[in-house]
Amino acid sequence: MIRTVLGFGYLIFAMVFLLPFAFVALLFHALGFRKSMKVVVYRLAQIWAKTLIPVAGCKATAEGRENIPRKGGGVCFVSNHGGFFDIIMLLAFCGRPFGFIAKKELLLVPFLNLWIYMLGGLFIDRKNVRKAIGTINKGVKRIKAGGGMLIFPEGHRSKAAGLLPFHAGSLKLATQAEATIVPVAIKGSYDVWEKNKRVVRASVKITFFEPIDTASVPLEDRKQILCDRIYAQIKQELGY
Predict the structure, then answer these.
(1) Backbone dihedral angles phi then psi of residue 204, each to the nearest 5 degrees
(2) For the chain, which residues make up each domain, given as ranges?
(3) Phi/psi class of residue 197: alpha, beta or left (left: φ > 0; alpha: ψ in -120 to 50)?
(4) 180-187 and 99-103 beta bridge pairing
(5) What's the mean per-residue pLDDT of the chain?
(6) CA 185 to CA 209: how far, in whole Å?
(7) CA torsion angle for 170, 204, 89, 64 (degrees, to 10)?
(8) pLDDT in tens, 161-219
């Protein structure tokens, strides 16, 4: 119980404490310093994530960070989604700014909604097809402009259900932008909170695989064969 109180207490405190710095960065972003300010906001979030890991009592390891493209165009990280701690691990070890598509309900969560927006996140209304397509198109434009985006192709947290099937068209954001894809496997994040409904000591591992150039993949293979390839790669790493 003490670790749970400390973990969530620090999570909220850090988000609130760092918020003024992020707002200043956003102001400079609006004044035209876009690229540099995106990095600043990401670094603030990275500090938050890296300090949260030991507070939660977790042992975190990262492999394959050399596979993350540092320069030269947009990138999509395609990851499994076992628990809420996945985002913490990605922020801590990804090493470059990225946004992600979040369900519109998160707009109602104080502080979290602001951080999602400032990190470049996009809120999607899955019940409105027209709006959802518009959100996807915004993500495609960001990637083409050299940004990074994160995709959880399972659609929601798998929790204890293993690796769930990838949704049809889940890689559309990456394939339409002809982005470089970096498959990611995160193991152990479910154990941190969801497993016992309290924060416990856990070992969490994140693995970044070799990047895939979607532009070099034949058009007919991008929808299913590419999806199956990434699914098999992540599943093998997770040991399912």
Answers:
(1) -120, 130
(2) 2-238
(3) left
(4) unpaired
(5) 87
(6) 8
(7) -80
(8) 789 999 877 898 899 999 999 999 999 999 998 888 888 889 999 999 999 999 888 88
222 confidence band (pLDDT: 50, 70, 90): confident
Q: Which one is predicted more confidently, 39 or 69?
A: 69
Is the predicted pLDDT of residue 71 greater than 80, yes or no?
no
Q: Is the pLDDT of residue 65 over 90?
A: yes
- Of 52, 89, 50, 51, residue with least CA distance to 77: 89
- The C-alpha atoms of residue 155 and residue 227 are separated, in whole angstroms, by 14
Closest CA to 99 of 157, 164, 41, 51: 41
pTM for this prediction: 0.89
| 109, 15 contact by CB (below 8 A) | no
Residue type, 53: I
Give the architecture-level CATH label for domain 2-238. 3-Layer(aba) Sandwich (3.40)
The string of pLDDT tens digits covering residues 93-102 is: 999 999 988 8
Question: Could you tell me if 124 and 135 are in contact, meaning their C-beta atoms sit under 8 angstroms apart?
Answer: yes
